[in-house]
Amino acid sequence: MNVIQCYAPTNDYSEGDKHQFYDRLQTIFEKCPTKDLTILIGDLNVKVEMYNAGYEDIMGRDGPGERKKNGERFANLCAFNELVIGGIIFLHKCIHKSTWTSPSHKTQNQVN
Fold it and tell me: Which domain of life is it from (predicted)?
């Protein structure tokens, strides 16, 4: 079994930094034996939306909001390496979806 733990750059980072992160992550995946189970965990700072056309094998339709460029990069990485995005593959009650709540408790978000 291979476990990869990482912290991904947020949308505020430069495109170069984000590109470098995903290139390094792909290099790590390529070093993992394909017969082994590989698990990716960490703070990936991405949103993957409910619309999953083209990604049905790796994610469900229970993601929040709109997929940003980081979410697209992450979905492509998962598809290429045959990873399943576990946090959104199954339906969840709304009260169990948010991973971040604003200090005022008025805004909630689900960031994978």
Answer: Eukaryota
